Amino acid sequence: MKYRRLGKTNLQISEISMGTWQIADDPEWGKGPEEKDSFKVLQRYIDLGGNSIDTAWVYGWSEDKPKKHLSEELIGRFLQQTSQRSKVILTTKIPPLNQMWPISKDSRIENIFPKKHIIDCIEDSLRSLQTDCLDVVLFHVWLDTFNENDEWKEVCQRLTSQGKVKFWGLSPNYYDPAGCLKTLESGEISVVQCIFNIFHQKPITDLFPTAKRLDIGVTSCAPFDEGGLTGKLHKGMTFPHGDFRAQYFAGSRLDELDRRISQLTLLLEDEATTIPEMALRYILSFDEVSSVIPGMRNIDYVKANIDLSDGRKLSKITLKELKRHSWERNFYPWATE
């Protein structure tokens, strides 16, 4: 496993972080693995050199059990039982109060991240993860207009001074990576987590140069485009009831995905032999990215992903070719309203 500096936090973070949305039951993913199997996945990740576990207050949350935070709680039990808290960088996220991803462009921060909500979520996450301090906390959505309000900054500073949070970050609204640049300039934020993959290349234009100039750590989520870049999805397939991908790949999107994956397959050779390998190597070819966060439900996925943290990047010729395969689209029209 290779490690990179997480911007001005100065944390040395493993190039491959462990995404944990899928390791506990979640209404949008269905039933997760048995807890003992998830523990084995977490342990294997650490044994292979991984030191970054990414979760969120909302992972595993449901209206039926509003006090439960299944992903955080599972991770908390694992770290307590194995006494390995000191080995990992824990990142979690504060959800928008209205539980909308992404939020609409006219949203106001007092309705999305009011002071009490921020504090309550931090206390929930501390309890769920069974820790005294969270390494990185992200606002799970963001608009640059939020930066005009100082209350969130004061709350963050207070929670940091109390020793409950080390570093603060944010995740810009889906498909709008430039929608946080003014906030990054304010100095309160140390980390930004954005969607970045072969299909969604927007962060390269504005976010990456700004993050580099300000020494902001960048982590990349959705590296496989919700499964689209695994090579396992195909036209005509159906998803289990409740699976959010039924909406994400609705209509003719699977047909279009099939066509695009066929084109990418033509590029497979010595630099990358599979679509997932190409997807992860593409992201790690950018020095601005400190860590990439694939979801990992079983031990085989852990080994396959971590094996790609070997310092080898795609060539400039391949990166130039992949630029033509950008597939920018917004499946959430309310976010632009």
Name its key features.
single chain; 337 residues; alpha/beta; TIM Barrel; 8-stranded parallel β-sheet; 33% helix; globular; Aldo/keto reductase
The radius of gyration computed from the alpha-carbon positions, rounded to a whole number of angstroms, is 19 Å
What's the helix count?
12
Mean pLDDT over all positions: 94
Q: Structural class, from secondary structure content?
A: alpha/beta
CATH architecture: Alpha-Beta Barrel
Q: For the record, what CATH class applies?
A: Alpha Beta
Strand arrangement within the widest β-sheet reads 3-4-5-6-7-8-9-10
The main pleated sheet reads as: 8 strands, parallel
Q: Please, what is the CATH homologous superfamily?
A: NADP-dependent oxidoreductase domain
What's the number of extended β-strand segments?
A: 10
Uncertain regions spanning at least 5 consecutive residues: none
Number of domains: 1
> CATH topology, what is it called?
TIM Barrel
Strand content: 5-15%
The sequence of SSEs as H and E is EEEHEHEHHEHEHEHEHHHEHH
Shape: globular
* Helix content estimate: 25-40%
GO molecular function: oxidoreductase activity
Pfam families: Aldo_ket_red
Protein name: Aldo/keto reductase
GO cellular component, one term: cytosol
